[in-house]
Amino acid sequence: MTIINEKNDFDKKIKNIIKLYEIGSFEDVISRTKPLIKKYPDIVDLYNILALSYNGLNKTEEAIKLLDDVLKKDPNNIHVLNNLGMINSGISSFEPSKIFLEKALKIKPDFFQAANNLANLFLKLNKAEEAIKLLKKFVNREYSNNYVLNFTLANAYQQSGDFKNARKHYDKCLVIEPNRCDSDKAISLMTNYKNDKSCHMQDMEKKLAKNLNKTDLMLLNYSLGKAYEDINNYEKSFLYLKKANELNNEIINYNSSNEKKIFENIKMIFKNDFNTISKDYNSDKTIIFVVGMPRSGTSLIEQILSSNENVYGAGELPFIGNIAENLFFKNKIKLNFNSLEDVEEEKFINLNNDYFKKLSSFETNKKIFIDKAPFNFKWIGLIKKIIPNSKIIHCRRDAMDICWSNYKNFFSSVKMNYSNNFKNIAYFYNLYLDIMNYWKNKFKQEIYDIDYEKIIDNPEEEIKNLVSFCKLGWNENYLKFYENKKTVSTASLAQVRSPLYKSSIKKWEKFSEELNELKKLINYSA
Question: Which residue of 114, 233, 319, 333 is 20 to 30 Å from 132, comparing CA positions?
Fold first, then answer.
């Protein structure tokens, strides 16, 4: 009887721990799981949920070490392998992630969770076709009506430019779980509601009356804001977008007070002139960095340049930002070093090697890579230090178009947490202008400025100048960039698959009255 009672007590504790994990109470999960591990050290599920909770608190090193230790004792545990794959993918350790996930699937080929995590890894590596091929194996099994399967498949089709199949799977998601709105948001990105005959807009409006959680309601308002802009009802569009941003602000609770200190610290680190790394590094690749504020045209530039068959568009790589933050910052503000002179030269050589090692996860023979993470504008000094032969392209666009586009689009990245009210957007935008002026003064002709509006007005001349700066040969494919089949995962996924259009210039003017506060905050004058 005692054994039965003990089992019942254990099962009850596990159920409570799982509930805590599901609502994101990771500290509580950790405090309750550790005593159970001492009592039941052989139950692997306890280590898994403990590691996932560490990961939820961004304590990835602790999570990986814990699971690595378990794996030494139980090397074929598919759940440990799957979690190691997922966590490594989350910190952009793509090669280890792939090894763990593929091993889990080799042991159990029908292990859907590992297949889905591997498919999402493929999407990060611009391998949408491989993701689709992998997930299709599960469509006719018991997972064919699984929300996660259909959503990941839809994302893969969308990134590959197959909007028809993407829509089919997003629609299926809406049937499986009608109160979720992430599919509505995805559909809105690739739909022009002026020409849409599917009644999706009306369906979204009906969902407003449902008992949605805050996140889904936020996504629904973003989607409706976009839909009403498409049909030129700007007043209603703004009301939905305002509500979406208010909800988003409540969820993330962003504080802008640290931003200025971060930018000041970066400038302090690079205040003195410096030499680039002195040792030759082992790479035959040339890197083109495309930087600028989000929504300034970085995706367009990548799409144009990667139309060259010798150029690989790698997308928004987190490598430089992660390298810089890990090197220079103890936490988000406090510095490890006050200047470059305090850092051993060997560290920079190692960073260079680490960057190119991470690039090798992209299995391509192309020698020219585009890294278009917009926020690398913070780290131009580090780029010039560790990859001195790289090219840096700075995308510029009308300030109001940038700031308005930041406001009206939903971004899942924490780096975009500033974008949910005008004051924070303007504050961040002004910091961006300041640090770009700092880099331009320091590096002068090594940074190539390209203006979005000039490309729209005079594409051939502007693209020829851009290509010349990058030392690429000319071909007509640059002008037909919209035929480029590379995967695209940003908010621009529909626009960059269309020819250039002048209506994208000064779109904010349709909302001019509602944006007076923003204009004042960025000292905007047309």
Answer: 319
